Structures are given as structure tokens and as C-alpha cells.
Amino acid sequence: MKDLDSLLPGAGVNTRLSHIGYDPSDYHGFVNPPVVRASTVLFPDAKSMETRNKKYTYGTRGTPTTDALAEAINALEGSAGTVLVPSGLAAVTVAILAYVAAGDHVLIVDSVYGPTRHFCDTILKRMGVEVDYFDPSIEAAIETLFKPNTTVVLTEAPGSNTFEMQDIPAIAAAAHKHGAVVLMDNTWATPLYFRPLDFGVDVSIHASTKYPSGHSDILMGTISANAEHWPRLIETHGTLGLCGAPDDSYQILRGLRTMGIRLERHYESALAIATWLEDREEVARVLHPALPSFPSHHIWKRDFKGASGIFSFVLKASDPQKVKPKAHAFLDALSYFGLGYSWGGYESLAVLVNLSDRKIAKAPTEGPVIRLQIGLEDIVDLKADIERGFSAANAV
Predict the structure, then answer these.
(1) Whether residues 18 and 112 fall in one domain
(2) Are residues 289 and 181 in the same domain?
């Protein structure tokens, strides 16, 4: 396996996904690392117990199964260390809590995931942390928003539901001039299509519930830090007592093996449908950063290697009274698209987006925003399903 370790950094995406995070020789030749469930770990003697001079000391501090997943994520992210938490939202909140204290000021992108905003507006403010939101298109001008007590900048590229890109290198450079830690929710692209730490981000956050799992049946999040900020992250993680379960880690590891192939299909199908939707008279706008018509497409093209399977479109509704009825009619007519939250699984999903919490990056005015998760179904069938939705919406 030593030869393999030297070859993997230069290997292709799918080759790396097939081999990272495990060594069969450690497990008698079995291909997948076994599930090691643990709470209590026994020590050989009292001195070892007192000094904790042992790799594994308690279940919350990791098992061989959770370590295998963390090592795989480190290989993908290029990070110094990774911790596992029970959900994507927990990955965001633990990452923020690791680097803030009462009296601090944080900057959050205004197109952030809704539950993240709720955490910032409730828990953080109760802790005495000042929160300001910034325009996703701000680029280097974010420097004007920094205060002497600004400690964290949270980005999410592209933005949740409306998919605005952010100039991550410019934002990171400005933040570091002021000594702030840069966090990024990179769930949309995964480390296969964008590696945040290579672009100046300090801590990369990922809802592995999505594409690493790929089957809509596991909740988990990962937080990966560079060498400078890893000690603070691992200390906070252990203090809060949050950990990813071994059984879930095993499932995420298994999902990783096919993530590259699945993402290629999601990318191809979603872009094809987004391009098709641009020519539909029922559609006012398509919100997909890989489309040349999208306002911040140039940033996506410069920094990203691909796109995933989730994007939105604006359904035309000139009559304000018909905005929600048209959206509901469209959604209710769908068959292959399920109506459900989350994304990243094999099945297509649709949801009416609520953007009422935006402060700067306001909602489109031409009609309701419908978010689509394009799964692994055949494109012709998904287009036919969307056609049924349009027919129903047109009848309203």
C-alpha cells in the first residue's frame, strides 16, 4: 500500500475515490473497513488511563471507522484534519462556534442556507455576537465591512437557492488582512469540483448528507480545517461532544466510492435541463452558475471544475395573486420529481423556495422561485414531468 499512497495524489478523481480512507491490509484484506461501534475503550494500565496515552480513548473521540472517513475527506479537501458531526447544519454551527466569542462580530453571506441564518440570528446573538450580512457579489469590497472585532467570515458558494457565486479568493484575502477566519459551506460543489482551502478558505464545511451519501438515507456533516485552525476545531468538537456515528460513517464511505460518477451524471443532466428551461416561455430566469447567461458565471468558470445537480428557475407569474397558486399547481403536477427538502440523492426533487429572510440579495420579482434537484433519472422523462408542471401552471 506504500506504493499506492505515493500514486494516489496524482491519480484521477474516481481512482482516488476508490482507494482513499482505508488500507485492506489493516483489516485482514477485507475491502471495506469494518464498522467499529464504541463508547467504552479499555486501557492496559492505570498510567495509560491517566495520561490517555492511547490512540482511542472513548467513542466520542473516534473509532477506526470514523477515522477512515475523516482520512478520506482530508485527502479530498487537502486539510490538516476533519471532524464528523451528525448533520450538515451541525457542521456549520460547530465551525462557527469554534472561532467566535461574546463581543465578536461576524460577516455572513446574505444568500446563506436558511437554518444557518436562523442560528446566527438567534443563538449567536444570544451569545453576544454581532452579525452582519453581506452581498454575495461584494468581492474585495467586503473589506469596508470589517470592524476591529470581526473574527469570522462565512461564505457559501454558490448561494443557497439563488446560486450567486462569490469571489472566494478576494473575500479570503480581505478577511486575512484583518485576522478573520474564513469558513465556507462547500456542499454544492463538493471537494471534487472546488477545494476551498486551495483558494484561501481556512475551514471547509460539507453536508455529507448530500452527494457523499447519495442515497437520501444518512445525515452527517464534515468540517475540515487547515493546519493553523485545526487545533481550535478539534478542541471545540470534543468539548461539545458531537460526533458522527460509525454506522453512518460506513455508509458515507461507501457512497464516496461512486460520488465521482454520480456527480458527472448530476452535472450533465442538470445543465441540460437548465439550458432547455432557458428557452421555455413559462420561465423568466434560470439560476444556474454554469450557464453563460448567469451574472456571476465568470467566477464559476474561473474557479470551479464542475457543477452539481441543484439549481433554481423563476416561474413567470405577472399577476401577484397567482404567484403561489401557479407554483403549487406546477409542483402538484409532478410525478418523477418528489416534493421534499434536501438533495444530492439519486431521485429528483422540487421545492418552492422561500426567500423572505433576505436582507440584501432580494428575491426575484418575476414570479416564484422553484428549486430543482436533478437526480439520476433519464433526462427525457424529467423534461416530460416538467412539461406536465408547466401545463398545470398555465391553467391557473
Answers:
(1) yes
(2) no
Rounded Cα distance between 134 and 139, Å, is: 10
- My answer on whether 248 and 341 are in the same domain is no
* Listed residue (115, 54, 91) closest to 225, CA to CA: 91
Q: Please check whether residue 351 is in contact with residue 339, taking contact to mean a CB–CB distance below 8 angstroms.
A: yes
CA distances from 172 to 139, 168, 192 (A): 9, 6, 20
> Nearest-CA neighbor of 301 among 346, 271, 260?
271
Asked whether the beta carbons of 264 and 138 are under 8 A apart, the reply is no
Q: Give the dihedral sign, CA 156/160/166/171.
A: negative
Name which of 74, 98, 56 is nearest 8 in CA terms: 74
At position 229, the amino acid (one-letter code) is: H
One-letter amino acid of 287: L
Name which of 266, 249, 191, 267 is nearest 64 in CA terms. 249
DSSP run (H or E) holding 86: none
Omega before residue 212 within 30° of 0, cis: no
Are the beta carbons of 202 and 228 closer than 8 angstroms?
yes
Task: Output the pLDDT for position 1.
Answer: 46
Q: Which segments of the chain are extended strands (E)?
A: 81-85, 105-109, 130-134, 150-156, 181-185, 203-206, 221-225, 283-287, 310-315, 338-339, 349-352, 369-373
Which residue positions in the chain have pLDDT lower than 70? Answer: 1-3
Angle (CA) 312-342-394 rounded to 5° is: 40
Q: What percent of the chain has pLDDT over 90?
A: 88
We report the CATH number of the domain holding residue 101 as 3.40.640.10
Q: Which DSSP letter does residue 335 get? A: S
Rounded CA-CA distance 177/223 in Å is 23
Q: Which domain holds residue 17?
A: 2-255
d(CA 277, CA 273): 6
Q: Looking at the chain, how many residues does it have?
A: 396
- The residue among 368, 382, 272 whose CA lies nearest residue 322 is 368
Would you state the pLDDT for residue 3? 66
Q: Which amino acid is at 379?
A: I
| Residue 40 cell numbers, joined | 467504552
Assess contact for 281 and 248: CB atoms under 8 A: no
> Would strands 81-85 and 283-287 be described as parallel, antiparallel, or unpaired?
unpaired
Distance CA 61, CA 45 (A): 20
Query: 86-122: per-residue pLDDT in tens?
Result: 999 999 999 999 999 999 999 999 999 999 999 999 9
